[in-house]
Predict the structure.
Amino acid sequence: MDPDDIVGVEVPASAANLGPGFDALAAAVDLRLTAWTTDREDRRVIAAGEGAEELPSDDDNLVWRALVAYCERFGAPVPEVSLRAHSAIPLERGLGSSSAAAVAGVALARALTRAGGSDHDLVDLAAELEGHADNAAAAVIGGIVAVVDGRAHRFEPSPGLRPVVCIPTERQSTSAARGLLPDVVPFADAAGTAGRAALTLAGLTGGAALRPEAMHDVLHEPARFEAMPETGALVARLRDNGVAACLSGAGPSVLAVVGVRDHAAAERITALAGDGWEIHAASWDRAGAAVCPPTVVARPATASEPPA
């Protein structure tokens, strides 16, 4: 394929819930999945990066299924191409890897076919495919999102804050983590959660100081921490040391939020985490799913090599 004919997209990882914002709040962070078109090959999707050896390479691949779903929704012919993909988002760590794949497929299809559809249409379609509107919204539109009655609302992250992502070697499937949750919660817990969610959103967007206690949750984190004790212990240590922190999505990764001028924060968090954790001093992804210039993806990646 001529480099000028290549179409590619970059999609960020996402940290959902943000503590008390269960199934409503999420933030986009700068671990990314890149997907781009190539000439039709034996495999439908040639993947590299995190979890590449575990993902389907045929038409069952989620990126391809999402591309096809977009074409069917908007009446566009399915292009006869293969896809290459490279992901820096680890699988089953609570960082929205599946949502990123679904968003990559629909965003790539829109860029390739030019059949239309708004960003909100992409959020809806990706959420139908993968099941998590909060992750999908953050991946499509970037920044910090609140999903209310199925509609995503975007907020700009505070320029004075940055995320630090703590990624363990252990994994946790989202479906298994959701199965841990209680069927009923006390009215007082629900009311308190609403207040802390509002404080968390205000803190992350610069409307108020972000305090560790604001990110405390009683709806989903306690049950999940019982199943992921090392994750729960790290969140507790971070909060005890004045760091705003929470479970990232369904876990087991942890999202910490620190001041941009706190240059030693990553070192302190590394020391608090100990062995078995990868600490990524990240940035907010403000762009969301974005079309890549051909020069970004023109050089094909090998199984162990990211795109140029």
